[in-house]
Amino acid sequence: xxxxxxxxxxxxxxxxxxxxxxxxxxxxxxxxxxxxxxxxxxxxxxxxxxxxxxxxxxxxxxxxxxxxxxxxxxxxxxxxxxxxxxxxxxxxxxxxxxxxxxxxxxxxxxxxxxxxxxxxxxxxxxxxxxxxxx
Length: 134
Description:
6 helices
């Protein structure tokens, strides 16, 4: 019974976050909690020109074969190289084709004090809104 109560609470909070996005771009970042954003939330951010940086952690050839619109490829990035983006007035979103890669970078940045960083839930495999090539 307790697990179902927690699940219901998580779903209600998630719905409140999505509904509260409204028309003001800065509200999205203020209402984002947890480690992940969903593909639907990212699509909303892209469409509404929210302030974010999308970082594709895959190798260059995978990126060139197709990536999420607006993503920047940083395949060999280290947490130290991303520190200049820590706590900027935008959300930094990481994604990869391997959860361990995005989780490692995410955890390193969180330990260093980053508060504006999340991962794309499900990584590249969760994205169903189309890919672009450069």
